[in-house]
Write a structure and sequence with these properties.
By secondary structure, this protein is of the alpha+beta class. It is built from eight helices and four strands, in the order H-H-H-H-H-H-E-H-E-E-E-H. It has two domains: about 100 residues, Peroxidase, domain 1 (Orthogonal Bundle), CATH 1.10.520; about 70 residues, no CATH class. A four-stranded mixed β-sheet has the order 2-1-3-4, sandwiched between helices. The longest helix has 18 residues. The two termini are about 40 Å apart.
């Protein structure tokens, strides 16, 4: 199980080292590539996370796969994760590092769920409203989720703003249940 506290500790350590070396952008790009490689190659992930495979073999493979392509600090960081039997944290650290780097750049990542596909004009209007509300430049990731019925759901970090019909119906149902309303036909 991935722990947020462990992820944050490794992320902050790596971010501090990258900032001190002036390579935050390069580390961010390399970490995103590592995460893509792990997500697209389940066998590679299993190999790195397997408790019986020796750390030396894992580090050799990481060197072969990422040695020339990735920022050297990222390769050293992966070696540390392997030595400490924390390779399972690589993707979580990549995501947290990216959020941290975007935050330092004055950007914020906003996941937008919509019941219907959005036009470019609608997406731009949402982006402008978010920018004025957050006082930061939002990087929006838009997903279509027909189960929402209508409206939007925004996720910024661990905060969620639900302005959907489905969310309103769920809140209404919870209020009815909490106030003692009995479902019809059930006693």
């Amino acid at each position: 199980m991935i722990s947020g506290a462990v992820t944050n500790r490794y992320t902050e350590g790596l971010y501090g080292a990258a900032k001190d070396s002036g390579v935050v952008d390069a580390v961010d790009i390399s970490l995103q590539e590592v995460a893509k490689a792990l997500d697209s190659n389940p066998d590679f992930r299993v190999f790195l996370e397997h408790p019986v495979i020796p750390a030396k073999a894992k580090k050799e493979l990481v060197g072969q796969v990422f040695g020339q392509a990735a920022q050297p600090l990222v390769v050293r960081f992966l070696d540390v994760l392997i030595d400490r039997k924390r390779a399972a944290y690589a993707s979580a650290v990549a995501e947290a590092f990216h959020r941290r780097a975007e935050q330092e750049r004055g950007h914020v990542i906003v996941h937008v769920e919509s019941a219907q596909p959005l036009s470019e004009a609608e997406t731009q209007a949402i982006r402008q409203k978010l920018a004025s509300a957050l006082n930061k430049e939002p990087q929006t990731i838009v997903e279509v989720n027909p189960a929402l019925i209508a409206g939007y759901r925004f996720r910024i970090g661990n905060r969620i703003l639900d302005a959907t019909v489905r969310g309103a119906l769920q809140q209404f149902s919870q209020k009815l249940t909490a106030s003692g309303a009995v479902e019809e036909g059930i006693r």
